[in-house]
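quick one, 262 residues, struct below
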Amino acid sequence: MVNKHRGGRTIKAAETVFDIIETLQVEGPMQVTELADNVGKAPSTVHGHLTTLLQREYVVRQDGKYKLGLKFTKLGREIRFDLDVVSTAEPTLTALAEDTGEEAWLTIEENGASVPVMNKTVDRSVESVGMIGSYTDIHNSGAGKSVLAFLPEDQILDIIEKKGLPKSTEHTITDHEKLLAELAEIRENGYAVSDEERYEGVRSVFSPIIVGERVYGSIGVAGPANRLRDSLYQEEIPERVMEASNEIELRLRYPKFNQGES
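---
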């Protein structure tokens, strides 16, 4: 059976499978009956899908409850490393974390969201506030804004219209015109900052990774606001972050550079 969804035709059975997977991701381990209630399907239907997922090792059963299996981790890892920018950026990301003493992140944009794909830490880094592979609002972080600013104008407006500007903290930009003005400033400066806009007490500085017309993602650091301050936050780290993005751009543009060839 098919169902029309977002302008296309979809398979209802497949929709149910993804509803089950996404519910387990959000809610954690669940029994068949409570999972069925959550997805709005009969327990027998949900049990049938779970049996298939169990046989394919995408879910595991423990103490009478079902949860996602580690096979998803394997898939995610393979997809992540299939991205040119991830393998190319890793040494630069490591160096950035070591040089700044803060947690360094590599992010991409997907479906109008900011998605962390790699991070590197050092001993004194702030406890990680991000999660690899998570989809987060693009307008309230240095990572997201640094990418958003360099997307085509029609894509920027489309993302804002579809996603809105939800408020995460008292510092989040929720005004359309104010955000567009800041994006223009980011394009001029070459980097973006977040001053406690996503998480209270956390600041970040990110620079986009751009080759030709393609925005690959962004690289930057995040840390406690009481440590990222004054000239360190306003000058030193922005300069170091832009150096990092420029280095990755060079490696993406000239692959032989990765092998130490000139």
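The first helix runs from residue 12 to 27.
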